[in-house]
Amino acid sequence: MADMTANPATTRPDDPENVIAALQGRFPGAIKIDDRKGFGGIIIEPDHLVEVATAIRDDLGYNYLSSATAVDYLGLGDHLEMVYHAFRAPQGGPGLVFKAQTGRENASLPSLIRVWPGADFQEREAYDLYGIHFAGHPNLKRILLWEGFNGYPMRKDWHEAYYEEDYKPFDSRWPGGQITRSEEFNPFGHNVRYPANFDLGRFKPADQHLYDGQNLGVDIEAEPGIKTDRLTVNLGPHHPSTHGVFRMIVQLDGETIVDLEPVMGYLHRNHEQIGERNTWNMNMPFTDRLDYINSMSNNFGYALAVEGLLGKGTPVPYRAEVLRVLMAELTRIVNHMWAVGFLLNDLGAFYTPMLYAIEAREHILDLFEATAGSRMMCNYMRFGGVARDLPESIRSVVQLVNDKVRDENTMAYITELVNETLPRTIDELDGLLTNSEIIKGRTQGIGLLPPDMAIAYSAAGPVLRGSGVPYDVRRAQPYGIYPELEFDVAVRYNGDIYDRYLLRLDEMRQSLRILKQIVPRLEQTMGQPVLGKNPYATKAPLGESYGHVENPKGELGFYVVSQGDGKNPWRYHVRAPSFINLTPLGEMCKGHKIADVVAILGSIDIVLGETDR
Amino acid sequence: MYGVGIVKGLGITLRHFFDTLIDDFKWFGKRNGLEAFQTKQGLKGKGMFTVQYPEEKIAVPERFRFIPFLVTYNEDDPEYPGKDWCTSCGICAKVCPPQCIWIVRGTDATTGRPKPEPEQFFIDIDICMNCGYCAEYCPFDAIRMDHDYELASYDRTTKHIYDKEKLSKPISYWQAIAPTTAAEEQVARGGYDHTDVQKTRKKAGLPASRPGPISEKPEVVPVTAAVAAPTAVAEPAQVVATAPAQTAPTAGAATTAEGKPIVRRRGAAGAVAKPAEGSVTPPPAATTPAPLPPTPLPPAPVAAQPVVAPTPVPAPVQPAASVAPAESAIPADAPKPATVVRRRNNPPPKKD
Q1: Are A547 and A301 in contact, with CB atoms under 8 Å apart?
Q2: Parallel, antiparallel, or unpaired: how do β-strands A244-245 and A247-253 relate?
Q3: Residue A228: enclosing H or E segment and its boundaries?
Q4: Is pLDDT of B139 > 60?
Q5: Residues B236, B226 contacting (CB under 8 angstroms)
Q6: Are strands A543-551 and A407-409 parallel, antiparallel or unpaired?
Q7: Helix, strand, or coil (residue B349)
Q8: Are A403 and A396 in contact (CB under 8 A)?
Q9: Is the dihedral of CA B19, B21, B25, B31 positive or negative?
Q10: Distance from CA of A410 to the nearest CA of B (A)
Q11: DSSP letters of A325-371?
């Protein structure tokens, strides 16, 4: 528990201990300190959860709920536990971890949606995957799975269709590894289980009326004497503007949006459950697949979380820290190029701005491929460093017919990329788009998110900073070598689509500023080690850890718990920025026209691999 | 004034248009040449930089990782022809995130005890996520990530489970596709040979490792060999040799010298380091694993008539030389795609 990010409550003894003491004085008997080995924070009695949470938010200033998730302690106390991580925005500093426990049967906890509206989706997710009932939640229904799903898949006693063993590595692989395809021992048609009393033939989803006819007959008198119908439109799930499979149920009055509800889960694969079967190392390549545009930063977050558990035993060499920041910042540029390009796509400027943007992205991906071995699924970081140093040269070998080779010195390549190519591309995008009257007309004043709402809704990344809240994990809870690097937290104040776009340009320029400081550090540390010990079976000491990084899309957090023999994560939770940033989508869209929904969604910049997990 | 922003923006698209147009004129007639490719793909490239796949392909970098393969000794190895490097220790199967590796550990027929050799080895390439952990954590350098990404086939249920025969590829193949990495690994191993073989040789009082692939005839091009093998189920389509055959010795000493896989230059013994005539006299071959030269040269593609390779020269790499062989890699008279017999991985199912 030595890591700062893992357990902020013990790093600055003056601050959080006073906080906890004050809370205990105010709510005697409602709060106890979590004294399990390796754990921190406080455990709140469920009956007092809402009032204590309100005090935490209003009186103590922890106004930003970063993450809320559940853990199933089957066999270790047999209770379900909700874990909340709250921080102070925008000033930053250590956060506060508080928890609430409930039994596994008829699990129920009070909802915190009135305190933090940002808890909305996260509580629905906990309800969906753990079966915790949140009293007071206005829209408590499954979010990632459908109603015909049997059981709560994140519970420890739940088994998937092709269940083999609780933990990897599976015994059937070695030494007597006769191959069997999983489809063969669990044939199609017998791998689905439904809940009791569930009749597939008669099943109608809760929103069936949307399909039955467009609510015709419900008259709204928009203006005296003029009767109109309220119209329901399904945007998605198969719609090019949704960046994947994502659906929005939109209630329209004319062309104006009255209500919008995001529906997700089409790409759900129970990433976290897979992560809890895996060993610690095995999760690293799986994190690549979350937000597949930013695999390097995802690796970074997970490595930090597990290093928080492993503690001082896994120091990260300085060159590895430099390489991590290099990759993370290049990834930020990749992502923002992509985001700006796709925003323009969503606005109707088909592919021209996007292709200009991703030309520069190609150059960065070439570097990733030569260094890590893959363009997108980088799997580059390890606990205690990075997998490999930069190659001497970005060089390829002829292998297939028509193969064409390149050979460029890596350092010269990075230097030119950072000093010339990327600034040129960003300036070009800026010149192409920023002053365009069409873009201004489509984006200014659309999708407004005021700063207080952005904080309350747990928005993160460009969505938060575009609303005038200068909260950046790199500065608020610094990690890696960011404290020694000079850069500003970009912030824009209007909170509309246009400002989110401008903010992304600002952030790319700040990233370039960081990268220019990284290049000399790379040259100074040439030849130094990048990885300490790299055992194939990492064993983590008991405890919990929350590692979070400022991903290009927002704060990406990994909450990991090690229990039992420590070879596999007991809990592996991903605080996905794409998922939580969708919470205020409905509020942002209300009152705008239907064509703006696409642009607003584009300005949030989601990736469904991360949203649905 | 309203509209100025749009007009300025359009100016940028117009500049892109003219950049591409000028580029087209500049490379007129040489558009598929290597120089055009390298300029356009480079950081200074202007205009469009798309590649006409499959007429042109971007060669993947050395560290590129795709489906794993098992390393064996070369078929013409005098002592261990075709012997597996895998000792069936099972670490790859234990570390594999999607658990796509199945290994049957070998047992000695007479004693019934486990022996360090896999009896069977399966990888389900549908499940494999190309993370490269098996190669990274293998203590014997016996499983490595391949570069061949053209694996499409018509039948996923049978063709996508690779068995040991399909997975095995000789060490010379690895040296050809990843010369730098292979050389680094050889240094780390302490010589060309497998770690266990080195131990055995030490016990027998021999030098720990042999100097390298011992073969007087031009080396068999491993990739092509795999294609030609009739038993191969899903052959890599249109593969050309990577191997260490020589280009015509026109490009001077540096080009002649770079033919063989560089690992041969740094074998434990200096036996192979005879400089070719007329070439730059190299420094004496390192008798110990020497630090690697900064940019090892890529092996040249196969020439029409492989010459018997002169013994490679450990020429110190010159910056200019690192580009020159790359240019010669696809000469203007390189075989046109039409001359290459395209092999389908698996023929489409016949209609009965």
Answers
A1: yes
A2: unpaired
A3: strand A226-235
A4: yes
A5: yes
A6: unpaired
A7: coil
A8: yes
A9: positive
A10: 11
A11: HHHHHHHHHHHHHHHHHHHHHHHT--SHHHHHHHHHHHHHHHHHHHH
B114:A169 CB<8 A: no
CA distances from A127 to B10, B84, B133 (A): 51, 52, 35
Q: Which pairing describes strands A226-235 and A219-223: parallel, antiparallel, or unpaired?
A: antiparallel
- Tokens 């747990």 correspond to A458
**What single DSSP character describes residue A281?**
T
Residue A239, amino acid: H
> What is the tens place of the pLDDT at every residue in A545-573?
998 999 999 999 999 999 878 888 999 99
- Taking a C-beta distance cutoff of 8 angstroms, is the pair B119, B89 a contact? no
Q: Which residue has the tokens 């709920």?
A: A65
The secondary structure element, H or E, covering residue A585 is helix A585-589
Q: One-letter amino acid identity for B213?
A: P
Chain B positions in Cβ-Cβ contact with residue A398 (cut-off 8 Å):
59, 240, 242, 298-299, 301, 329-330
Show the DSSP H helices in A457-564 as ranges: 462-465, 473-476, 497-524
CA B140 to chain centre: 19
**Cα–Cα distance for residue pair A155/A209, rounded to 1 Å:** 32
ipTM: 0.82
Cβ–Cβ contact B155 with A under 8 A: no
Residue in B91, B115, B231, B97 with CA at minimum distance from that of residue B163: B231
User: Whole-model pTM?
Assistant: 0.80
Asked if B56's CB is within 8 angstroms of A402's CB, the reply is yes
Q: Which pLDDT score, from 0 to 100, does residue B300 have?
A: 41
| Interval B31-76: pLDDT, tens | 777 888 888 888 888 877 888 888 888 888 888 999 999 999 888 8
Angle between helices A497-524 and A594-604 (to 10 degrees): 20
The alpha carbon torsion through A53, A54, A58, A59 (nearest 10 deg) reads: -70
Give φ, ψ of B105 to 5 degrees. Answer: -70, 140
CA–CA dist A88, A82 (Å, integer)? 20
Q: Look at A169 and B57 and tell me if their CB atoms are within 8 Å.
A: no
| CB-CB neighbors (< 8 A) of B65 in chain A | 373-374
Q: Which residues of A touch B63 (CB under 8 A)?
A: 369-373, 388, 391
Is the Cβ–Cβ distance between A512 and A519 less than 8 Å?
no
Q: Which two three-digit tokens encode residue A584? A: 């205020």
Which of A294-298, A466-470, B236-240 has the least mean pLDDT? Answer: B236-240
Distance CA A3, CA A305 (A): 9
Q: Amino acid identity of B228? A: A
Any A CB within 8 A of B176 CB = yes
Structure tokens at A109: 């906890």
Greatest distance between any 2 Cα atoms in chain B: 92
- Residue A84's pLDDT is 93
Contact A374 B54 (CB under 8 A): no
**Contact between B58 and A404 using a beta-carbon 8 Å cutoff:** yes
Contact A373 B132 (CB under 8 A): yes
